[in-house]
Design brief:
The complex is a heterotrimer of chains A (291), B (263) and C (323). Chain A is mostly helical. Chain A has one domain: Orthogonal Bundle (ABC transporter involved in vitamin B12 uptake, BtuC). Helices cover 74% and strands 2% of the residues of chain A. Chain B is built from ten helices and ten strands. Chain B has two domains: 173 residues, Rossmann fold (3-Layer(aba) Sandwich), CATH 3.40.50; 78 residues, no CATH class. By secondary structure, chain B is an alpha/beta fold. In chain B, strands 6-7-8-3-9-10 form a six-stranded mixed β-sheet, sandwiched between helices. Chain B has a four-stranded antiparallel β-sheet with strand order 2-1-4-5, with helices on one face. The radius of gyration of chain B is 19 Å and the shape is globular. The chains are: A mainly alpha (291), B alpha/beta (263), C mainly alpha (323).
């Protein structure tokens, strides 16, 4: 009984850590540009697919990972430079459609460079489950959770301690004032896409050994990450982490105890209920409109 | 008989009293001005009266009925209308259409006749367009009847807001800094327009920084400071009120007004 | 003459009807008729969706859900319960209207990205339900749908459907143009322009947002029912998230707040994948690229961008923006 609960909890935290990484990507880009980047899920896909591709080409795993992440970061920055920046003055909906165009394009590229098949990636360190309290945990789970924690800590350090991170926060808070004090807001925008691509690709690589990867894997992951970001209050770093974990755990519990067929719907049912009763997400605050 | 009575009205924003225990009354058919330094709570007061904010305490009485906390569109139905300090134009419409939205409550809002474009709806639409064009001419925008609002100059947009507010056929019209950002000539024209509106019997409540405009036009002036009433009376009384002089008008402002009178 | 043609109601509607009437001459075979029918069905949804997105300024990333409910209502009620297809279509439309009304108020309090999330969630839940309730829907494999009948004759074939859908497109456009130019339509547009100004002008913004949400949902539902009968087969993919995104993309690409733009956007994005099939594997890549380029260089969409260029060339002053 308890072992079952523990099993669901571990699964939930593992998946939730991936959602959290995606959600942080959404929030970082949103803060820098007020754009919802619907290509966020494709960063996840590129990380996983890129690594699989490079492994198949004979590269050792760590090298493949580094190259795949670097490549995704470059793609993220190119997306900003070539597609978002030239359309800076367009409406938010137009920008959303541009990122949707980018997501279709990136899926198209993945499909051309690789294929439409499912690919398995070997686990980083073995397949033998570790048993804790009757629940079996795959070593890869620990990699995902550990990797997630590392990312969160690194981000925290970046935003709290480093000048560039503070510049990004300042830009999120007030772009005009940030420009006035000499912050290069264009650079911030570019960096935000790079950072979001970095987080997404890392998440994609960590989770790939547990759930196969293919060219459309980013669609659902991206949408659930968006759920998590909204749940935590869009633009809030810790909110994104909490949102990711809540969505992951709710999904795993819901699939285990209620209905595994509706597993993919749980995140969306949850977000609808929250939005009905708390229109700014769990941790959001409602501002009064100035006229 | 009052057109509007505000009784012990308060509004708090996270511990800050934007409006505090404020009471005053507006006589029908008069031009009633509200002045005070920036941050005195004038716009907050307007937002409270028009239902955009919900008061923390107190009553807002419109023709004998407490309307505090009613939704803005319900207040509009009771004959309350306003303009905004920061323009709130429907930039996705023409000038004429902006005014037509102001006439919303007086038009046929049924879906079927409109969607099927029945003869009656066509006729009523033509009438409404004529009336809206007439209103644009009334505020001096005869040249802009077919213009896209997005292509109009700032001064014209200020008038467009007034035309839209008048389209409601309000009994009480709240004007939030109608002369802000306008030059001397444009301000004089707004002055004349407000007088013209007052003559039609509409009660006007005016928030304005231009003292020459306020002193010249107002039947009654209310002075706010830090969300509280500092003083009130007609122009002479306010100008002579030592509290008002000390806190707000200052020697320079009075001097400017006297100079304006002399010249 | 040019001014008369540039008047959206008289000129545009006539041009649209003329194009629909003449187009069959240029369609070599049934395959092309099929693309045209599906473009027309998408256009009907987009004309409704544009009222919500373009005119009232409220985003929806879940309209394929409403389309799906209409489609499956028609499919399930006729195939499993032997209902008259028109009754099924009507019941589907009413049910969708009621659903949109019920969720509309809490959902439409939300703004921007929160509204996008909520509508997206609603759409996905509906498509997952279509996938899962396989006793009724056939699950991921889909289900067959009986044909529509008129006076006892079954409607088969792309050519007959071409004229039905073509007529419905013209009617939809006419209804939408009328709505936009009416007091109700202006109230919707005022919500987009400035919600506070709309409220103090006497517009019950919450009510109008729900109204346009319901109207656009019913448009989608009816088009979904028709599409199900026309195709004779539906699967959850036809009504999923990607379909929702496609619909919004059609509206935005054609040009927001332009009824003709919605039709043009639907036509282009339905035809484009067919045009790109010769690229084979490169089809998606090219599609995404084209979408990005159009939106970058014509951020207001095709019809408004081309329209203002046309006006600059031929006419001094636009009379109204309700194109």
């Amino acid at each position: 009984m308890f072992a079952e609960f523990l099993q669901f909890l571990f699964t939930g935290i593992t998946v939730g850590a991936t959602y959290a990484l995606v959600a942080m990507g959404f929030s970082i880009i949103y803060n820098a540009s007020h754009v919802i980047n619907f290509a966020q899920g494709e960063f996840v896909m590129l990380g996983g697919m890129g690594t699989v591709y490079l492994l198949a080409a004979g590269l050792p795993l760590p090298v493949a990972i580094i190259i795949a992440v670097a490549m995704t970061v470059v793609v993220g920055m190119l997306l900003e430079k070539l597609a978002i920046e030239p359309a800076r003055n367009a409406s938010v909906v137009t920008l959303i459609i541009i990122t949707i165009g980018a997501s279709i394009f990136l899926r198209g590229v993945a499909q051309v460079v690789m294929d439409k098949e499912f690919h398995a990636m070997p686990a980083f360190t073995g397949e033998d489950p570790i048993v804790i309290g009757g629940a079996a945990i795959l070593p890869q789970s620990l990699w995902v959770i550990g990797g997630g924690v590392m990312m969160v800590l690194a981000l925290w350090f970046f935003f709290e301690r480093m000048k560039m991170g503070k510049a990004m926060l300042a830009t999120a808070y007030n772009p005009l004032a940030a420009r006035l004090v000499g912050i290069n807001t264009k650079m911030v925008l570019l960096l935000s896409f790079g950072l979001a691509a970095f987080l997404g690709s890392v998440g994609g690589i960590l989770i790939a050994p547990m759930s196969a990867t293919y060219y459309e894997v980013g669609i659902m992951l991206g949408l659930k990450g968006f759920c998590a970001a909204i749940l935590g209050g869009l633009g809030r770093g810790w909110g994104a982490v909490a949102g990711g974990l809540i969505v992951g755990i709710a999904e795993s519990m819901g699939a285990g105890y209620i209905s595994s067929e509706y597993k993919d719907a749980i995140a969306f049912i949850l977000i609808l209920l929250v939005l009905f009763f708390m229109p700014s997400g769990l941790f959001g605050t409602r501002g009064t409109e100035r006229v | 008989m009052t057109a509007l009575a505000v009784e012990a009205l308060s509004k708090e924003f996270g511990g800050v009293h934007a409006v505090a225990d404020l009471s005053f009354a507006v006589t029908p058919g008069t031009i009633h001005s509200i002045i005070g330094p920036n941050g005195a709570g004038k716009t907050t007061l307007f937002n409270l009266i028009t239902g955009l904010y919900r008061p923390t305490a107190g009553r807002i009485v419109l023709d004998g009925e407490n309307v505090a906390g009613l939704a803005p569109y319900k207040l509009a139905a009771k004959g309350l209308s306003r303009t905004f300090q920061n323009l709130q134009i429907f930039f996705n419409m023409t000038a004429l259409e902006n005014v037509l939205v102001g006439m919303h409550l007086r038009l046929d809002r049924r879906l079927a006749p409109a969607v099927l474009r029945l003869a009656g709806a066509r006729r009523r639409e033509a009438q409404a367009r004529d009336e809206a064009a007439e209103l644009l001419r009334f505020v001096g925008l005869g040249d802009y009847v077919t213009a896209d609002s997005a292509s109009m100059p700032y001064g014209a947009l200020k008038r467009l807001e007034i035309a839209r507010a008048l389209a409601l056929r309000p009994r009480l019209l709240l004007l939030d800094e109608p002369a802000a950002g306008l030059n001397i000539n444009e301000t004089a024209e707004i002055d004349e327009l407000i007088r013209k509106i007052g003559e039609t019997g509409v009660t006007v409540v005016l928030v304005e920084h231009d003292m020459r405009l306020v002193m010249g036009i107002s039947d009654h002036i209310l002075v706010l400071d830090n969300g509280r009433k500092l003083g009130e009376g007609n122009a002479e009384q306010v100008r002579a009120d030592p509290k008002v002089i000390a806190a707000y008008l200052g020697a320079a402002a009075l001097g400017r007004n006297d100079a304006a009178k002399g010249g | 003459m040019i001014a008369w043609l540039a008047n959206p109601r008289t000129g545009g509607l006539l041009v649209l009807a003329a194009i629909i009437a003449v187009l069959p001459l240029a369609l070599p075979n049934n395959f092309y008729f099929d693309v045209a029918v599906r473009a027309g069905l998408n256009a009907i949804v987009c004309v409704g969706l544009n009222l919500l997105i373009g005119y009232a300024g409220q985003i929806s990333l879940g309209h394929a859900g409403f389309l799906g409910l209409g489609a499956y209502a028609s499919a399930v009620l006729t195939a499993h319960y032997g209902w008259n297809p028109y009754a099924a279509m009507g019941v589907g439309a009413i049910a969708v209207g009621v659903l949109a009304f019920a969720v509309g108020r809490p959902i439409l309090r939300l703004r921007g990205h929160y509204l996008a999330m909520a509508t997206l969630g609603l759409g996905i839940i509906i498509s997952i339900a279509a996938n899962t309730e396989d006793d009724y829907t056939g699950g991921p494999d889909g289900m067959t749908v009986p044909p529509l009948t008129v006076f006892g004759t079954e409607l088969y074939g792309e050519r007959i459907w071409y004229w039905i859908v073509g007529a419905l497109v013209v009617v939809s456009v006419w209804l939408a143009l009328n709505l936009v130019a009416s007091p109700v339509g202006r109230a919707l547009r005022s919500v987009h322009g400035s919600e506070v100004a709309a409220e103090v002008s006497g517009v019950d913004t919450a009510r109008y947002k729900v109204l346009v949400f319901v109207i656009s949902a019913v448009f989608a539902s009816v088009a979904g029912s028709l599409g199900a009968h026309y195709g004779g087969f539906i699967t959850p993919v036809d009504v999923g998230f990607i379909k929702s995104i496609e619909l919004v993309t059609m509206v935005v690409l054609g040009g927001m707040a332009s009824t003709y733009g919605a039709v043009v956007g639907a036509a282009i994005l339905t035809a484009l994948p067919q045009v790109l099939t010769w690229l084979q594997d490169y089809e998606h890549l090219a599609f995404g690229l084209i979408l990005m380029l159009v939106m970058i260089f014509m951020p207001r969409g095709l019809i408004p961008s081309l329209g203002s260029a046309f006006r600059h060339l031929f006419i001094d002053r636009p009379e109204t923006q309700s194109t």
